[in-house]
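re: ur question from earlier - yeah i can do the single chain one, its not a big deal. heres the input i used so u can compare w yours
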Amino acid sequence: MKSRREFLHQLGGLTMVTVGSLGGISILSNTVFAQQEGELWFKISLAEWSLHKALFAKKINNLDFPSIAKNTYGIDAVEYVNIFFKDKAQDTNYLSELKKRCDDLGVRSVLIMCDGEGDLGDAETQKRNVAVENHYKWAEAAKFLGCHSIRVNAKGNGTAEEVSKKATEGLRKLSEYALSLNINVIVENHGGYSSDGKWLSNVIQNVGMPNCGTLPDFGNFCLKNDPKDWKVCYESYDRYTGTEELMPFAKGVSAKSYEFSADGECIEIDYKKMLSIVKKAGYKGYIGIEYEGSLSEDEGIKKTKALLQKYGKQN
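and the output i got, formated as tokens:
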């Protein structure tokens, strides 16, 4: 496993005992270490997308995720991605097994990131309503697992004003249903209009529901990308301004990371500056690690956690 020496150093000299492996990711004994968060002003969670390569390759599966988070990375809170258990939203046997694994490990299920269920800002009322209702099952699954939120997207076709109006309608309808379950509906800056912090914050204000908020992502501020390659961005919104605009409505935060310098800093994102913005907003909830760079997923997760710990210490 890469960066093993670095990982051991981060554990403060604790002995690492490997008891098994899943897809090349070492699984450690539950007693090896606990997440070192006592001195942080926020809590660390792990977003499942950080392991998307291993999941798509079927080296691991969604049921393995809580154990990997806790036993490999010392993280006791997880953020699921629905595409990795897309047909299981209403499978109570599956959800019960997932919940049992979390409970046995002492892992908290924080949220479910929902994609592929239709556009909540679709211009056509019927399609928009179908998209809204497609999310109901995920709100119910989130409730079952003990999550506080589902993460959704504010997407649609048309002008910024047109999509804003329709997304507001779609989000309000979904939030009204989720409120009955005591579940939040949180919108990520996830491309297009939603990556404009001012636009998205205005949508959330117009929804006017106490359980509808944002999930600021440090990295997703591309307003216009190449339709053939989403990684190629033609126009971006200032990530720091955008995060400031979204933080007043934040019910979660996503610590996106890509590449790292030799001294362990994220090259694309100034983590010290980002975390100061988050802290200034008074946020004290979960910040989820979401790595998607060119390093191994294992190494990327560790480096991102190290950055959060470095700049998340109480002053």
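The first strand starts at residue 18 and ends at 22. not sure if urs matches, ping me
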